[in-house]
Amino acid sequence: MSALELTNVSVRYGNIVGTQGVSFKLNAGETMALVGSNGAGKSSTLKAILGLVDYPDGDVLIDGASLRGLRPWDIVKRGVGYSPEGRRVFPAMTVLENLKVGAYTRAGNELSDSLARVFSYFPRLKERASQRAGSLSGGEQQMLAIGRALMSKPTIFLLDEPSLGLAPVIVERIGEILHEIQKSEGLSIILAEQNAAWAMSIAQTAVILELGSCTMVGVASELMEHPQVRKAYLGL
Fold it and tell me: How much of the chain, in percent, has pLDDT values that exceed 70?
């Protein structure tokens, strides 16, 4: 298990603000909901953690060690897994080939164990191992995106909008699987979501982002009772 900390992380895209001084701590073995509307800075925060964007200000640390200056593949080797918004599977490649791509930072002799582990969470992927990823349903592609990220054996798992465009029954199942993964493997998880009710219902802590800044940080169940959160994000 690993802990993650962001201190005053600011991301810019030219004159456009991605994040402004984002700070929070994800404790080892904890699930955090990163909640905000479209453009609030959720994806920018995850990309900063993974080294996909520069952050001239602030720092990102895993167990106290800075990730500043590391390239994304080096950060993956440090134990960070990433399931991107929109799933981003390789449509012309098979399910099995997509999963193997996720294990590129691992030793070859670990592949069979990693595949067995992913298939235990997602039996449907095993059934469709030789099928092209582009022919899968949206829910199956999301399972593949999660499984591909798990192939790197992360200790910290970043998921960007995993519920986007999926039927409620599929979203509920993905939530159950994430809970199972966290319980069995002790992963530290950040769940970046517009679907605040779902994300906060399965998380222990939550961070509310607005216009690139953290406006609230706390226990998820308590924030769900906050009048401002209920009105803005839960429709209550």
Answer: 98
Strand-by-strand arrangement of the 57-62 sheet: 16-26, 4-13, 57-62, 65-66
Task: Give the separation between CA 180 and CA 83, rounded to whole angstroms.
Answer: 17
Residue ranges of domains in the chain, CATH in brackets = 1-79+155-167+186-236 (3.40.50.300), 88-153 (no CATH)
The tokens describing 206, both together, are: 């939550």
Rounded Cα gap, residues 26 and 4, in angstroms? 5
Nearest CA-CA partner of 35 in 223, 174, 192: 192
DSSP-assigned beta bridge partners for residue 205: 32, 219
pLDDT tens track for 11-38: 998 888 899 999 999 999 999 999 988 8
For residue range 50-80, list pLDDT tens digits in order: 999 999 889 999 999 999 989 999 999 999 9
CB atoms within 10 A of CB 71: 11
Q: How confident is the model at residue 192 (pLDDT cuts 50, 70, 90)?
A: very high
